[in-house]
Specification:
By secondary structure, this protein is an alpha/beta fold. It has a single domain, classed as Rossmann fold (3-Layer(aba) Sandwich). The chain is 43% helix and 15% strand. The chain has 6 helices and 7 strands; from the N terminus they run βαβαβαβαβαβαβ. The protein has a 7-stranded parallel β-sheet, sandwiched between helices.
């Protein structure tokens, strides 16, 4: 197994939910983590919950390439390198296609898909230099379409395709790329507040452990796409 202690990771959308669960698992395994988002106060609370030490807070909007470029620069300035990138930032707006607003469509595509491109584009030099790992957090909605999900489906189908193509582009630089496609996860997604009724779902800590397992895997092995579901439905 690979030793990931003292590796440096960047996790977008990491103040809550899946992103926080991933950051927590990485920090527990000795990884230095940079967490980003748009809500500075929520990020500071996450930093405190993670223990502050070796956790860097970055205010960045993945829809803006300059934000992501500056975030990577700050990480390298603070920690000296960047080994792992987790593109987790995402939003969901659900409505029939004839009722979906242009604002909601653009917000999903710009955040869930273009945002992931911005993050990888900004970090690609460091990942190539350090033989790093890029992981995008997609969704089973990236393989299974549903009513009222046209915008979300489009963004997640696109993210899956983007990550798989990036994998082919970067594998000869010894950069690994994986997309994780979770089903129902207990999270703050779309304004939800986690509660007792969410116990049957995948937990953010489960996704965090999955990321750790991927990073520790033999470098000759690449699970390029992972679908994960709750064991049972509610």
């Amino acid at each position: 197994m690979q030793n990931i202690e003292n590796k440096v990771a960047y996790i977008t959308g990491a103040s809550k939910g899946i992103g926080f669960g991933i950051a927590e698992a990485l920090v527990k395994n000795g990884v230095k983590a940079a967490i980003s988002g748009r809500d500075t106060e929520a990020l500071k609370q996450a930093q405190q919950a993670l223990g502050n030490q070796n956790v860097l807070v970055l205010q960045s909007d993945v829809r803006n390439f300059d934000d992501e470029f500056k975030a990577v620069e700050k990480i390298v300035s603070e920690f000296g390198k960047l080994d792992i990138v987790i593109a987790n930032a995402g939003i969901g707006k659900f409505a029939p296609i004839d009722q979906m607003s242009l604002e909601d469509w653009n917000a999903m595509i710009d955040t869930n898909l273009t945002g992931a491109f911005h993050t990888l584009k900004a970090a690609s030099g460091q990942l190539k230099e350090n033989k790093g790992y890029y992981i995008s957090i997609a969704s089973l909605a990236g393989a299974n379409f549903f009513a009222n999900g046209a915008g979300y489906n489009a963004s997640k189908f696109g993210l899956v395709g983007f990550t798989q193509a990036a994998m082919l582009d970067l594998r000869n630089y010894d950069v690994k790329c994986t997309t994780i496609m979770p089903g129902s996860v207990t999270s703050n997604f779309n304004g939800h507040t986690p509660n007792e009724d969410d116990k049957w779902k995948i937990q953010p800590s489960d996704i965090g452990q999955m990321v750790v397992d991927l990073l520790k895997m033999n470098p000759n092995v690449l699970p390029s796409k992972i679908e994960v579901r709750p064991t049972k439905t509610k």
